[in-house]
Design goal:
single chain; alpha+beta; 6-stranded mixed beta sheet; 7 helices; globular
Length: 325
């Protein structure tokens, strides 16, 4: 490994992670109403295990002052455990020839600079896509918070309203919607063909953009987990509460840059390993079933996320499922 290459890596990639990442993370967290939170805090070990006390609301009861005193069953003060799981990822190796740069009269470090920038974007995309896949799996495994009309229709504003209503009097806790670009434009198309505008001034219909999300911000991303095929192509929409999903950076980026001889031209490769933790509100990673260092398939398996709170209203949110169109 060339020492000069590692210096270039430290000069270009590490500032991106230390400065640009927190900025982008803060912007994303704010845009999602803090329903999905990307954090730069370090994560140690395979799991982050936290204990919490179970709700005691069911201990409330009515008392008859005129009745004889009798026995009353006790409600146990119990604790449950919430597990966040560490996910491992890699980037590269990225291969380029230093002579490609000198041939174009560019500094040889430019290849590393490009690779470093691409890694920064790839890491953020991986964290977001993994978090969404986990949320789809966990929420979709609970029938009481799932609205599925994929057998008969696409998702409409009425369907979204039905899905959010699963939270009952806590429906206002659903603070953002997460959907694909296609689904977003399906909702716009529905608004265009709908003769009911928000209000009219001088014959001009005025549409509020937030109406598409029913007053909630919409996170538009073509994350793979938001589209799936079952008989026909389907769409998932997530309605999320504050802190529904959290990504904790592992703080363990390891990069190796090598420049090697032995071929007709000199080659340089860059390869990076990293990790981050994924935690979901109201759901705990099932260590026995899911295990450590899980694959994408394991993270996207609903039975690997156990609901550990009694009330659905204290979980990550709801999911609405429908056809593409």
């Amino acid at each position: 490994m060339a020492q000069s290459d590692m210096i270039v890596f430290n000069e270009y990639l590490m500032p991106m992670l230390a400065e640009i990442f927190p900025q982008k993370i803060a912007m994303f967290n704010s845009a999602s109403n803090n329903t999905m939170q990307l954090q730069s805090a370090n994560f140690d070990g395979n799991y982050l295990q936290e204990s919490f006390y179970q709700a005691l609301h069911t201990a409330q009861r009515r008392v008859d002052r005129n009745a004889a005193i009798g026995a009353q069953a006790a409600t146990d003060l119990t604790q449950a455990q919430h597990n966040t799981v560490k996910v491992a990822g890699g980037f590269g190796p990225i291969l380029f020839e230093p002579s490609q740069m000198t041939w174009l009269r560019k500094p040889t470090q430019e290849g590393l600079t490009v690779a470093a920038g691409q890694f920064a974007e790839a890491l953020l995309a991986d964290q977001l896509n993994t978090l969404i896949a986990s949320l789809v799996a966990a929420i979709g495994n609970v029938a009481a918070v799932t609205t599925d009309v994929s057998g008969v229709s696409a998702i409409s504003q009425s369907t979204i309203n039905t899905g959010i209503a699963k939270f009952g009097d806590a429906s206002q806790d659903i603070r953002s919607l997460v959907m694909t670009g296609l689904q977003y434009h399906n909702l716009i198309g529905e608004a265009i063909t709908n003769t009911n505008s928000l209000f009219t001034i001088g014959g001009v219909a005025v549409m509020d953009g937030t109406a598409f999300g029913q007053g909630r911000p919409i996170v538009i991303t073509d994350a793979p987990a938001l589209t799936f095929f079952s008989v026909q192509q389907n769409q998932n929409i997530l309605g999320l509460t504050v802190g529904a999903g959290t990504v904790k950076d592992g703080g363990d980026i390891v990069t190796n840059i090598e420049t090697t001889n032995g071929k007709t031209r000199i080659e340089t490769t860059m390869q990076t390993d990293y990790s981050f933790g994924v935690g979901l509100k109201g759901y705990s990673w099932d260590i026995a079933n899911g295990g450590s260092s899980p694959s994408d398939a394991a993270l996207a398996t609903g039975t690997n996320w156990d609901k550990v709170v009694a009330s659905d209203k204290h979980t990550a949110g709801v999911i609405i499922i429908g056809r593409d169109v």
